[in-house]
Amino acid sequence: MTRDEIHALPALLDVTTAAQVLGIGRSLAYDLVRTGQWPTPVLHIGRLIKIPTAPLLSLVDKGEVAVSGPSESQTT
Fold this sequence. Notes:
The chain has 76 residues and is an alpha+beta fold. It is built from 5 helices and 3 strands.
């Protein structure tokens, strides 16, 4: 995905498109969302999962994509 394509994205993305922005696979992206490890906010709208574009672009622009393990609150 080119920088121009990334900056032309809509305000909310599906998980597959957000994964493309980060350069990761669809399955990994869904696993990260499911386990609470996705590096930006995630919106659950009914059964839909949407990723806001602005925080994702900010993350990409900074080049700080760090995926960590579950936080304490998720493991207890």
